[in-house]
Amino acid sequence: MKIKLTEEQYNRLLVENDKDFLDGQVNFKHIGNKVTPFIVKLFNILKEKCKDCPFDKMMSMIKNDFALTEQEATLLTYNFNNFNAKNSFIEDFKEVLGQPLVYYGKFLYDMNIPVYGQVNGMIDGWAEGYGTSYVDFLEQIGNGDVEIIADWSGRVDADTYDVEWSVDDDYAQDQVSDIWHEYDEDDLSDFIDRVSIG
Hints:
two-stranded antiparallel ribbon; 7 helices
């Protein structure tokens, strides 16, 4: 016995019969997790207008022209390129209707980032030089022919509330490299607890 489904029923079944992305951690309200007729139209338009565009331009077009979120546009751009790579540029995306979409999105790992700060201040000291007179010594100061001596026995006068902070990129990269060694790929529960999806 054959049953005929409307397009709306078919689209609903495509979404309902499969797990959401990342076991339900990610849901998209405008697209499901498979290629729907809407996505076929979108991909065909993208192929016609922008098939050789860079990733960010494709993503921007999908987001703006189809009023989708940035996350949805990112996922669809990735899948458009993925289908093209596997099928040597598809003529009509109807041939991939119903195929699953691959999740692709931004992941964020919660960690402490090392920083360093630069504080500017003042301390007592002097410019030291040799000369035959005050005028001679003043000329040496003008020419930079003196040594600057700081008196570290005193207090540094500094505004510590206006520190210019910067990320210590080398140390931060070392920390990120160490993350991979901290977790067992067979048990990612601790890792997943520190990751959010953006």
